[in-house]
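Hey,
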Amino acid sequence: MREHDVSRLTAGELERTRRELAASLALAWPDSPIRAPIEAHITAIDAELAGRAVLRVCGCGLATDDDARMDGHLFESAGHQERDLSRYQELAVIVVDRP
């Protein structure tokens, strides 16, 4: 499988790209072959965001390191939930520690 290098993108570009990919994924048929590369890109973005800072990501794709912004978003958006990024943080440490 091809590597998805998103390290050169800014935080804003990563957030926008993730939202666009999530929208594309939502429009793809459940058995469509396009789902795999979209999901791989989203995973690469999530791992990059997790490795950069203490980042909080909502299930809708909003990502921020501003606690007040995320708390306000979750309060105002009923049904939204913050994503647990611990598995991506573990992957980021493994990738960085490789020789």
